[in-house]
User: Fold this.
Amino acid sequence: MTLKIAVDIDGVLADQVAAVLREIEREYGLVYSKSDVDRAHWTFEGREVWEEISRLLSDPEYVMQVPIIHGSQKAIKKLSHHDVFVVTARRPHTEEATRRWLERPFSFPKGLLLGQNRDQA
Assistant:
């Protein structure tokens, strides 16, 4: 039996926390570890991490350098006999870079559903 399975990008396929912490260190000179980010609305120096991520996702170069979560490629490969869709809260303006990022390590022929176009499923 073929199942329809939805997989998120950030925190499931893409290690967004590692990427944003690297940029926080580069841009602000502040060093944090992944264990410091203990909730979705984590803040540093009065800035919310999700606002930083949203800003950074507008840069295709940033999107392309986000690391892959260890083991995610193997897990997706195990699901390859099902219809696997990628869903994300990323905004539509990030679609091109997000698709390019996904093509490198993964293959998702069924589709990508971004932020405001999620109701197309």
The mean pLDDT is 87. Strands lie at 4-8, 43-44, 47-48, 83-88, 112-114.
